[in-house]
# Entry
Amino acid sequence: MKIGAIVLAAGEGRRFGGNKLLAKVGDEPVILRVLKALSGFDRVVIVGAYVNELMPYLSNEVIIYNPYYRDGMSTSIRLGLRFFQDYDAVLIVLTDMPLITNEVVSRIVSAYHDGCSAVVPTHNGIRGNPVLIHRVLFPELTRLSGDVGAREILRGRVDVCTVECGPEVLIDIDTVNDLTKVLNIVNTNRQ
Amino acid sequence: MKIGAIVLAAGEGRRFGGNKLLAKVGDEPVILRVLKALSGFDRVVIVGAYVNELMPYLSNEVIIYNPYYRDGMSTSIRLGLRFFQDYDAVLIVLTDMPLITNEVVSRIVSAYHDGCSAVVPTHNGIRGNPVLIHRVLFPELTRLSGDVGAREILRGRVDVCTVECGPEVLIDIDTVNDLTKVLNIVNTNRQ
# Structure
């Protein structure tokens, strides 16, 4: 199965008050941790608001600049999907989830089986990210608009598969306070 | 017919000795003249060596950064083609041809008819650019490698259509001397 990761890094980080993707977690910028978790996967990084700041960290990546980034996440998903339209599935990856690992990504991908329109990771039954979307849903994914993510098209579908994972599939950085929590988790795990 | 323009702006400009795309012709950077000639066409700009310098001029464009730009033009064409793989044809546009106009581009596109695998503009019978490539040739275009352009796959084909245009389809800027010639043409036309 050919899988392409659409790495969403175009946002303004308004609730964070700036570019959260270069904040350091475990001595490494958040975005580079996420890219490491995608090691071995075809991918394209979608940038927008902070293209100039991010570029120096991404010189080995295929990058798409989304001029419509202010119109929300769906515009970035749509551009990434154009790039992977001949693939079997895409993985929609939020770059503000620095605790995601290569093992988690592989676990999500491995959970795919015939008949799944998507694979969603859960923790204690709560749905998280990143989400794998099979090509049967590409047309619906293309029709999304505004600041909504891929999970929007999965509501009420009975063919969505889930896979239980650790808490990392629920932990994202929206605010500076979230970053502090993530740093505490990383420090505790180190000790 | 859905046509997407792949705007090639990733090169290092070695023979020019730097970034030729921001050189001014008729008070306007070369790359912006070319984008103006593509007004009304779907397009994606492929950048590479000079991404940081070019970005401020391209904030309203969909841009793909090609991390393989040192491996030549074919790597940029391939990335652009991924984006337009569901289109009927692509226009391969060299950004160092600042005398191309919207009229010329429309003339090339209008010359397409059933049975053309491509449309190549000519001046006095000499083949120039930009070239329109129909989707029947997308697989071959994807297989190009190294620093070769789309015309490589057209050699010896009997289904390549041509359309006679002005000298602008032959005039590109490879060296500083070429730029001087272009400036002389523009100044003469103004007088």
The two ends of chain B are 39 Å apart (CA to CA). Chain B touches chain A at residues 51-52, 55, 58-67, 79, 82-86 (CB under 8 Å). Helices of chain B lie at 30-37, 51-54, 73-83, 102-110, 138-143, 176-190.
